Amino acid sequence: MLSEYLPILLLFVIASAFAVGSLVVSSLVGPRAPNPTKLAAYESGNEPLADVKGTRFSVKFYMVAMLFLIFDIEAVFLYPWAVVLRELGWFGLVNMTVFVLVLGVAFVYEIGRGGLEWD
Amino acid sequence: MLATFLAQTAATTPIPDVAWSSFAPELPPTITALVLLLVAVARRRQLLVAVPTALLAVAAGVWLIASGETPGALVVPGAVAIVLGILAPALVVATRGRTSLLAAWAAAASLVAALVLTVWQYLTVLTPDGPTLVPQLAMADAIANDGIAVFTRLVVYLSALLVIPLGYGYLQDRRINRAEVEPLLLLAVVGMAALGSANDLITLFIALELLSLALYVLAGLARRDRRSQEASLKYFVTGSVASAILLFGMALIYVATGTVTLPEIGAAVGLVTTPRFVAAIGLALITVGIGFKVALAPFHLWTPDVYQGAPTNVTAFMAAGTKAAGFAAALRLYLVAFPDLEALWVPVLAVLAALTMLYGAFLAVVQHDVKRILAYSAISHAGFATIGLVANSDAGLSATLWYLLTYAVSTLTAFGCVIVLERRRRGEVTLADLRGVGRSAPAIAGILAFALLSLAGIPITAGYVGKLVVFEAGIEAGFTWLVLVGVLASVVAAFFYLRIAGMMFLEDSPEPVEGPYPSFGLSVGVTVSAALVLYLGIQPELLLRLATDAGVLAR
Amino acid sequence: MILLAAEGSTVTNEVITTTSGVIGIAWLIPIVPLLGFVAVLLLTRSLMDRAAYVAIGASAVAFLLSVGVALQVLGDPATYVRPLPTWIDVGGFTVTYDLYIDQLTAVMLLVVTGVALLVHIYSVGYMEGDPRYERFFAYLNLFLASMLILVLGANLLTLFLGWELVGLSSYLLIGFWFEKPEFASAAKKAFITNRVGDVSFMIAMFLAFATFGTLGFTEMFAQTDTLATTTAFALILLLFGGAAAKSAQIPLYVWLPDAMAGPTPVSALIHAATMVTAGVYLAVRMSPVLIVSVPGMVIIAWIGALTALLAALIAMRQNDIKKVLAYSTVSQLGYMFMAIGVGAFRESIFHLVTHAFFKGLLFLVAGSVIHAMANRTDIWRMGGLRTAMPVTFWTALIGWLAISGVPPFAGFFSKDQILTEAYLHGYGPIWIIGLIVAVLTAFYMSRWFFLIFLGAPRFGDEVLPHESPRSMTVPLIVLAVLSAVGGLLLNPIHDGPFYRTLGPAVGDITDIGYEPFGSLTEPVLIPLAILAAVVGIGVAYLFYVRRDVSMGELAEPIRGPVAELEEHAFYVDAAYESIFVRFGGAVARAFAWFDANVVDGVVRGAGAVAVVIGRSSRGIQTGLVRSYVAAFLAGALAIVAVVLVQVR
């Protein structure tokens, strides 16, 4: 009964083993010649201003990130829909219209509340 | 391009037959919520939102009345749409730019519309001939319109409708009457109603998330109040964990059975080819997730903090509505999808029920904050409602549904009175603050005492009939020990309800607090809900029969 | 032997469903006082003092209707069921608001409405000038309505509805003067003790439903033939648990003496005549079930007898004018249960009726005295009130003789017949206890009477006793007349008119086959009972009239450790306090401790899961949330484990 799932488990094991294994092997085998330039954080060629660990980001970054995620994921939904639009016919069209309308309301609200203004 | 597509499609495919009636009651609150969000940001241009909405609604209404196989069959929904449409600009004009007032009225109107449509749906669609309910499936079996669905709709819409007048002045007092309150409330209530009719795991999960997300925000409504913030965060964090576990459980069920539709799961679980092991783990995890939502011990720890911290009207709504919706989902899950695994979940839930009843009752005794006491009482009541679920029978099903209705009206009344007292005191209410209220405000003290008697399960109140029916079902199913625990818990509970009543009537306050009289809306809300408690206690026939008829499940 | 043959009347009532005659409108009996309650409460402002007349009118209407119902029932004896709408109907469980009216109901209706009417009238004078005068009458009406629902219900659940409502309204009435803290706590004590009994009652109802499939009296009694003895035994004990709380029997009697904190008319109405007898009514109503299990009845008999004895002992050393009466009530209720236990159902109800007369009278006398003494209640600081209050004195005299069991007053007949019945049914030890209690009763009531009314005044100069107003003395006189001749008229001999009437309504004991305890016959037993009364009165006379009692309590002749025990009511209250209150508190604290420590401790303590969760959720930093989640996950793991163990 459970044996049907054995391949999945095996796959899990192999995948994790491979990931861990390659990291371990490369750290063991790979040559290492560190110098300050190599170790510097790469921020578009500028020197980092402060230690990144422990700094606080403005909450606005999170806001934008969250909004991006929501609208982005919902927009992604449009692609598969477009592919099968012909099969879905009216049903698909109406449903997507409703979907976009609802999304639109959220978007208008977002703008109206100033969620996209930076300061 | 689009034109050609439309032309082609119109010629080849007919408009699909969507069973609108299956979610008709949810439409008014949903649309109202969206429109209100737009109104909230429209500032001076409210009419700009209201008028197009009105035109669309009226057009839809006219179309509904005119169309249909037999013209006139859809008069009720059509009329509802037209009335709501006309109301929209009228309310904008009448409230003269006070957004929160507009939102409150609009939300109330949409909830009335939802109730009307629920009754319409029940009378014309679900019981076409005679009183026997004919369950209907719709939307590719994603929605089941049966007794549970109808009854849940009644309870949650009624609760939301009562919460609006209860909360309006309160939010104003605390200066948190933001325009988002009503839309969020409406979205939450739609989620609850959808939870009651969700017939597959996906719908169930989405409905659950819809109501949860709205409530997370509502709990943190008081942005300047640390307690409210804490409540919101705690609720969110623990709720997310619960959702994740629930989702994991659902995934395992899908793995085991290969379907997400509840009746199909029910059919598949019993098969020999289904891995019982996986299904069992899935069931256990789902139990945990549902247990969190309805606050069964040991998944209840968030409840006191959240109930105490959240704005009181939100707490009332959470107690009344979430519980009803959560149990509706649980009933459908266990009775439709897992009847073959009853040997697994019945004992587990029985133990949880016993634990929950005792825990809630005993811990309430040592509390001092009235809202916190009511929170523990809510926990305890979840245990009582579970007895009907554990009974695993039609009688148990209707008993639990009925219990949730009685609990909803009782707890709404109690929280309504707490709101009145909070507004008088301009702050939270502890037991000591209740001294002498019986003298300074006899009416409100009387109503609160009455609501508490109902929660304690004393005759002539709704709560008594509720407990009786649940115990009855439990005994019939052979869970005598569980009922005994329930009786014991109700005795302990009677003690702390009594303590509140005693504080009000039998002790005097050192300095009398003279507060303003409750506002009109608040009085109406409290009075109506108290009247319901009395009515359901004395003449429960009508709704009890409805609950009994609701025992019909879409299997 | 002739007596035994005569008492087993095999006549049983025919059940008739009817809506004709007065019974057709019998539902008005509880409704009218209920409307009176609502009206007085709503119209308090505009009615002012006239509220009393509304309330009195309502109770008078209830009384008249009761008389009509009684006439109809007695004219054509049968069990009438007045159909009314359904209350609850769910899945085979149907409960209606039907009324059940037989001879027993008729008797109870008359007693309840009659005494209530008198108490209403009495209260006009007694409560005069109270700031919440109107509300008092509203509560009285509410109580009356509740009691009538209790008596009229055709099934256990409707009876329970009334049962809870009387508890609630008596809570309001006991705590009526809530300004004083001890009154409030008395009200709470009454309520909580009664809840304990309610649990028992509720379980009894579940058991009854599981056994009979119904809670209706007619349907249940039709099935007693097939009832298993063991089930009946359990049912009897559970029902008695409920009755013991309401009717103040061991071990749940503690609330009644405290409940004397309420206004005196309330004590007369609730704690003498009506509410406390609800348990007796319940037991007799269920007597067809009782007779199925004789062992269950024997337990009731013993608890009744012991309660009677214990309360009588305590009453001997009480100094509060109302406390003596309170313990006396507990004692007399013990008598009634004793009677039920030995199979003397009709005798029990007979005693209930006469007790309502004389104890109601005595409480009203006490109220009159308290009224005259400016709210003093210590009987050692009274004395010599005979001349100042002639009406009160003479009525009190009748009440005293009646409760002491002196012929031909009412109490003599009912008490003697219970004792005789105990003997003839073979319960010798219980009969002896009954005799001892009779002596004690005569003694402490004589002490009470002598100290209040005879001797020289001991209340000093600041109190000027005076006779009470007419509205108070008229009810006294009415009750005094009833106490004097009630027994003689109703049932002067064994198997008199009262018993003949009541016979068909109670359980039939012929099949039990009782054997007499000894060879004594009634001509010997009756003088023994009279002798008990005479001894008690005589001793009290020697102690409290012949000796000098002018120095007050110091003159108390009963001394020593036993007296100490009696004075402190055998320390039962203190024991309960420490057992139940502390235990309940300890459980609650244990749960709270569990919440605070164990749940949180899961995080801090060992266990790989908890540690991992603690680390991974550290970022939230609220401390408590992680313990919530931890408890949550622990619960989840437990459930998964349980399910997995089961599925294996």
Report on this model:
- The complex is a heterotrimer of chains A (119), B (555) and C (648).
- Chain A contains 5 helices and no strands.
- Chain A has helices at 6-29, 36-39, 59-76, 78-83, 85-112.
- Chain A has a single domain (2-112), classed as Up-down Bundle (Methane Monooxygenase Hydroxylase, Chain G, domain 1), CATH 1.20.58.
- With 119 residues, chain A is mainly alpha-helical.
- Chain A is flat.
- Chain B is 75% helix and 1% strand.
- Chain B contains 22 helices and 2 strands.
- The longest helix of chain B has 32 residues, at 226-257.
- Chain B starts with a helix and ends in a 6-residue tail after the last helix.
- The relative contact order of chain B is 0.09.
- The mean pLDDT of chain B is 86.
- By secondary structure, chain C is mainly α.
- Among the domains of chain C are: 296-567, no CATH class; 577-647, no CATH class.
- Chain C has helices spanning 2-7, 21-24, 28-42, 44-47, 51-75, 103-126, 133-152, 156-174, 181-212, 217-222, 229-246, 255-258, 264-273, 278-285, 287-290, 294-315, 321-341, 345-372, 385-388, 390-404, 410-424, 428-453, 470-490, 497-502, 522-546, 561-567, 572-604, 608-616, 624-647, and strands at 15-17, 79-82, 86-90, 93-96, 99-101.
- Chain C has a 3-stranded mixed sheet with strand order 1-2-5. Chain C has a two-stranded antiparallel ribbon with strand order 3-4.
- The longest helix of chain C is centred in the last third of the chain and has 33 residues, at 572-604.
- Chain C is globular.
- Chain C starts with a helix and ends with a helix.
- In chain C, 58% of the residues are buried.
- Residues 1-9 and 599-623 of chain C have low confidence and may be disordered.
- Classes of the chains: A mainly alpha (119), B mainly alpha (555), C mainly alpha (648).
- Chains in contact: A-B, B-C.
- At the B-C interface, helix 9, helix 11, helix 14, helix 16 and helix 19 of B face strand 3, helix 8, helix 9, helix 27 and helix 29 of C.
